Automatic annotation (TrEMBL):
Residues 387-403 have a biased composition (Acidic residues). One of its GO terms (biological process) is chromosome segregation. It comes from the Bacteria. This is Chromosome partitioning protein ParB. GO terms for cellular component: chromosome. PANTHER family: CHROMOSOME 2-PARTITIONING PROTEIN PARB-RELATED, CHROMOSOME-PARTITIONING PROTEIN PARB-RELATED. Residues 387-416 are annotated as: Disordered. It holds the Pfam family ParB_N. Residues 6-104 form the ParB-like N-terminal domain. SUPFAM superfamilies: KorB DNA-binding domain-like, ParB/Sulfiredoxin. Keywords: Coiled coil. Residues 302-358 form a coiled coil.
């Protein structure tokens, strides 16, 4: 290999068949060509001499650069004698290996590094995004998108650099240029289920922001918003309707001011008692459900209006008759005409009610924002609520204008709240309490336990507990079932040992305080009891059996010590004698099962109960195996057992085998 590259005319260079790269990318090739056109080829090629053609070389590394130069020569961008630096290999046998090294060890740039590189070029060289795009054969939109990534909040940018988030996730965060908002959403989602969900990230970032075509934005106006300090998120392809206004709180304040001024002007102009503001395009049911609509008198039709209705009826009838005989194109025209005539008919027939000045003086109206951004008076008026000035102990009222007092024994002059306001205040009060409960795990544990056990020990409703948390005993299809097992006896002992002194303390608050005053061990016992009683009974074919088995394994439960199969709870319930004999075969083989093959099923079940209870004098090894045995369905096995085909044992139901009383002699 020579020490230094030599300059060779591009016309004397050709790609070598030994070049391992055979597949390229048209877009990437165009980007490379644009960069070479702007800056030339800055990295030498590697080639081998062509035999019997002095000064000619086959390129084994740098073929894409060579192709780009040839294209630029054809386009007239480079002169025909354009030269390239070539490092000539002395041994052509190294050609394939060298080509592979050139391509195999090529590391794609990290997107974060690309972003900062573009940013450095623009800042240090005074270039524009358009200049960078031309230099690297990219679109201006691509360059601007990478520059936007360069301005991401630091935690997000570092996550991109360290490959902790994907490029798509980073682009989602860049959809909002507010770096503080980006950081808030990233901190909220980074450890959660939605950390890589692009749509959820964009949704979170778009909260409390508005596009320029939003009615709120149209109402305030772009100039007024910016003058008040509002920020607009722009990119190359946004316009006045798609740009995003990211200071939602500021915009909402400006909207409130504009609507308040419009409401006051409308109140004075129309002579209304009250005009309320709704910063939306419509009035919802929740805003008016406790108000009574104001009904005016529908005006009688004038002679001209009645005559026009008669004309419209005739025209509609004639159009419908003509439609039946018209062709497809004419039918479409007639259908449109009928729609227009019917709309005019409804407009005349359904006139707006007329309100008297007295009615207006006691009316409540709503101002909303039209889709064009103009304040609009909602078409329906309501009877304005009248403040009760009586000296009643409570401001509780009934009827369409239902209001709610601040509580029992409300003093005169206290505010009367609508149902809607009462609910909103309750929501905010609950939010405050939730935050503090969630911030104190020990408090939450005591409260949660109390909620569950207080409801579980009652015989009536629990509406005064103000919670959805409960520890109800699951429903069972086995009505009145009593297992009679050791576990059932132990559960009764646990239940009896619970300290129930707090249940007699008085009302809910007093019971709660009394419960919290119990020793730690007593409260912990109630928690364990409440959690345990919620456990469902799941059959072996249920998906939930995997967790049941896993829990039993973690608790290292010795099933054989707690539960023994009996004729009543197991053997007599099996479908055939063969199944019982198969279980005997499991512990003692054919020798044991054959001893009882002639028994009737009930006698066999009774015998099996005694064998597996260890009360039959059989061999010590068989006895130990029998006492340790439980059916697979009762084991807490991590994996479901394989289904084993049971080979029936020859039986003779007609023969009378040994009875339970004869069992000792069977051994």
């Amino acid at each position: 290999m020579t020490q230094l590259p030599i300059l060779v005319p591009a016309a004397n260079l050709a790609k070598s068949p030994s070049n391992v790269r055979t597949v390229s990318d048209a877009i990437a090739d165009a980007q490379l060509e644009a960069n070479i056109a702007a800056k030339g080829v800055r990295q030498n090629l590697i080639g081998v001499p062509v035999s019997r053609k002095k000064g000619h070389y086959r390129i084994i590394a740098g073929g894409r650069r060579l192709d780009a130069v040839h294209r630029l020569i054809e386009k007239g961008v480079f002169d025909a004698d354009y030269q390239l630096a070539v490092l000539v290999l002395g041994n052509a046998k190294d050609a394939i290996e060298t080509s592979l090294e050139e391509n195999f060890f090529n590391l794609t740039m990290n997107p974060a590094d690309t972003c900062r590189a573009f940013q450095d070029i623009i800042e240090s060289e005074g270039k524009t995004p358009e200049d960078v795009a031309k230099r690297f054969g990219l679109t201006e939109r691509f360059v601007r998108s990478r520059l936007r990534l360069a301005d991401l909040a630091d935690p997000i940018f570092e996550a991109l650099r360290n490959a902790e988030i994907t490029l798509n996730v980073a682009v989602a965060y860049a959809s909002n240029s507010d770096r503080s908002r980006q950081a808030e959403v990233f901190e909220l989602l980074k450890d959660g289920y939605y950390r890589s969900n692009v749509n959820e990230i964009k949704r979170q970032l778009a909260e409390d922001t508005y596009v320029g075509s939003d009615p709120k934005a149209l109402l305030v106006g772009r100039d007024a918003y910016i003058e008040a300090g509002g920020r607009v998120d722009l990119d190359l392809f946004s316009d006045s309707t798609t740009e995003r206004w990211i200071d939602g709180d500021l915009l909402n304040r400006l909207v409130a001011d504009k609507l308040a001024a419009a409401a006051e002007a409308l109140r004075e102009r129309e002579g209304l008692a009250e005009v309320r503001v709704i910063p939306a395009t419509h009035v919802t049911y929740n805003d008016t459900w406790d108000l009574r609509p104001l009904k005016g008198d529908t005006p009688e039709l004038t002679a001209e209006q009645q005559a026009r209705l008669d004309e419209l009826e005739s025209e509609i009838e004639a159009a419908n008759e003509a439609w039946e005989e018209a062709d497809e194109e004419a039918q479409a025209d007639l259908a449109n005409r009928v729609d227009m005539l019917e709309a005019e008919y409804r407009a005349i027939e359904n006139q707006s009610p007329i309100l008297t000045e007295e009615q207006k003086a006691g009316a409540l109206a709503y101002v909303v924002i039209g889709h064009d951004g103009e304040p609009r008076l909602h078409e329906q008026l309501y009877v304005a609520p009248v403040e009760d000035e009586t000296d009643e102990d409570s401001v509780q009222e009934t009827g369409d204008d239902e209001t709610v007092g601040t509580g029992a024994g409300t003093a005169p002059g206290k505010p009367a709240y609508s149902q809607r306001l009462s609910q909103e205040l309750a929501e905010m009060k609950s939010e405050l309490l939730r935050v503090h409960i969630a911030s104190d795990p020990r408090f939450a544990l005591d409260l949660g336990t109390f909620w569950m056990v207080d409801k579980a020990t009652r015989h009536s409703g629990a509406y005064d507990l103000a919670t959805e948390l409960k520890a109800d005993k699951p429903w069972s299809s086995l009505s009145g079932f009593q297992s009679g097992t050791l576990a059932a006896e132990e559960w009764g002992k646990i239940d009896e040992a619970l300290d129930r002194s707090w249940t007699e303390a008085g009302d809910t608050c007093q019971r709660y305080d009394a419960f919290c005053a119990l020793p730690d061990e007593a409260r912990a016992a109630w928690l364990a009891w409440a959690v345990a009683r919620t456990l469902h009974a799941v059959t072996a074919d249920s998906k939930a059996v995997a967790l049941i088995n896993h829990l039993g394994t973690k608790l290292d439960i010795d099933v054989a010590a707690w539960w023994r199969p009996t004729a009543n709870n197991y053997f007599d319930r099996l479908s055939s004698k063969a199944a019982i004999l198969a279980h005997l075969d499991e512990i003692g083989g054919k020798e044991l099962s054959s001893r009882y093959g002639a028994s009737k099923k009930h006698d066999l079940a009774t015998s099996a109960e005694k064998i597996f209870a260890g009360t039959v004098p059989i061999e010590a090894e068989l006895r130990d195996a029998a006492l340790a045995w439980v059916p697979d369905v009762m084991r807490y096995a991590e994996a479901a057992p394989d289904v084993v085909e049971v080979e029936p044992v020859a039986v003779n139901d007609e023969d009378h085998g040994p009875t339970a009383d004869e069992l000792p002699q069977a051994a």
